[in-house]
Amino acid sequence: MKKFMTLVFIAVSYISIAQQKISGIITDANNNPIANAAVYIEEIQKGTSTNDKGFYEISNLPSQPIHLTVEYIGFETQARTIKLQQPETVLNFILKESVFKMEEIIISTPFNKLQNENVMKVEKATIQQLKNKGAATLADGITTIPGVSQVSTGTGIGKPVIRGLRGNRVLVYAQGIRLENQQFGDEHGLGIDESSIESVEVIKGPASLLYGSDALGGVLYFKPLQFADQNTMNVSAGHTFLSNTLGNSTFFGAKNSYKKWKFLANGSFSSNADYEIPSAEKVTNTRFNENVFNAAMGYSDDFMSSSIRFNYNQASVGIPEEIGIQNSNKTPLLPYQDLTTKMLSLNNIFFLNNSKITTVFGYTQNDRKEFEEHDHDDHAADLDEDEVEHPSLFLKLNTFSYDIKWKLPNIKNYESIVGVQGMWQKNSNFGEEILIPNAKTNDIGILYTGTYDWENNNSIQGGIRFDFRDLKTEEHEVAHEDEIHIYEALDKNFKNISASLGYKTNIFKHIVSRFNVATGFKAPNLAELTSNGVHHGSNRFEVGNPDLTSEQNVQLDIALEYDKDHLEIFANGFYNKIYEYIFISPTGEVEDNYDVYKYVQENAALYGGEFGFHLHPHPLDWLHLQSSFEIVIGKQDNGNYLPLIPANQFTNTLRAEYSIKKWLSSGFASVTLQNVLAQNNVSEFETASKGYNLLNFGVGGTFNVSKVHFNLGLNLNNALNKTYISHLSRLKGDEIPNIGRNFIVSLKFDF
Fold it and tell me: What CATH number should be reported for the domain whose range is 129-750?
């Protein structure tokens, strides 16, 4: 603590105390003022909108280089890095019309640049964009991003898969801290709701340099809701209805920002019955309920920016096993899970003379309860009191995390960052059974990364990192078939070095190329090392392997983009070599009437990519044709295919965008054909999956009535009511199809 206070004192001693203000006029190429253009400064989470004359003003700014972005639909995003050296600075913008999309600042990478300036390719989508595509859940929405899919158990449980890698190889960040909720399990969802999120950024590939262990396969970075513009107040409410599951989701929120202080609070409640397959049967116990509450408070002035956020997420999720009871109840039956996650984060930026220090401190508490079915009636009303109060499995996970980075003073065109990250974690058991033991984990990582830019759009970026993980478990006893098994305590250490190097350039006038090579790692998690018992969520007996070593990978990425006014073409290829890849495999044995699965290791490789185009024909400015193809192949060195690799697929979308005077903006109508190919490259214990085609429709827009704005979206998914089974469905083994036709109505009001 003494060292930390000394660091703060040094930082404050270098801070500029001048009050800074920036203002200006935003116009188009014909000198017409642009009203309601968004002007935002990411570092301090402060923004405003232009008035009818195109005028904007933001005050209480640091005399430190800041990234100022200007966005407006139909125009290219502009970003300026400026240092305010006078009390008042005037900066005008002339926006150029854009036929494709607005760019935004990427915050999951260390230097917070626009995507076209990044050395590393990052995919970004706003929550509204995902909803416009007909996403029934957040997990569904991120699968519309090329290269991303999900392992699903019905509609309420979905875990992300990035280029064939899943579980805790894909790190999830929310509120600036890593989401720790026993994420190795496939049988529960993300544990985060769309109501607390502004957008999602996806890093596809090793990100251990930036985030440490568990980022071997990639990162999902959820950007939290922005505060309201300076000196404004916003109130919003909305409702979504899903016809297939009779699902209802209600949202409310309020924001208020002053000159220095800003506040927000929002919440949501959702409930869904069992989903219906095309035969009109319901898949029993795929029902789920979720309650969410978020609150945040921020403060910013000329020398610091700070925000504190709290998120509460509680979900009750049924674990399906069959097509049995047919009703529309929404209370989960046995077996089911009760999942509660509480996240508290404190984010600070201290502006020094020519540099800045960012700190993020977080606390996460995750309670995971599983209630199994005993000999009784299946109806929830008949549950014994003991079964409700005493779960079979109850894991309580407490995590303290920290992330401290110092952005060093720039040296001409060179920027660099040095940082330290880590977490302290404790897992405790309170249930009748022990799947993984009580344990403590301590992580610490030290990193350095830098980027150098020069003329003609050339950039090079690289870095190195060292990580240390210490894991200790307690000795424990487990009863198996009337026998007591004693499992010794573990004391394991894992050390790893991660590195990355990337280069971006324009190889031709309109072709941007990115070449990246990176190495990442994943230390074995508690489940992989120590599991010894029945996991009711996955309906198997799982056996850990205490001799597992860390996974280490080397991945090569090549990204090419051709971008002109009316045509965009992209080709992203990757080759990912993973040493000591960990996966679970059946042993052929049976214990406690469940098939036994054990964690094993084998060298493996994954390769493939995403390819596509976006055509905007002139003069049909309202028409868009988008097409993409994604492919992943995963094989062990012994020639066997890896399990749970997503099938290759084409996605084609025809979309019209329009506005009608001042009463309708951001209007759209779209039709999407998703062609999923057969998956015949399967592991020894999998079966092949047939291909299928899905047809989806969508229409919507934002209506403006006086000072009230409401967004209406109508989507029809699986319009032809196609019977299909996704290769990554955990119900595939029971030959249970995925969801049938689903009509989604979404309505949101902003005041």
Answer: 2.40.170.20
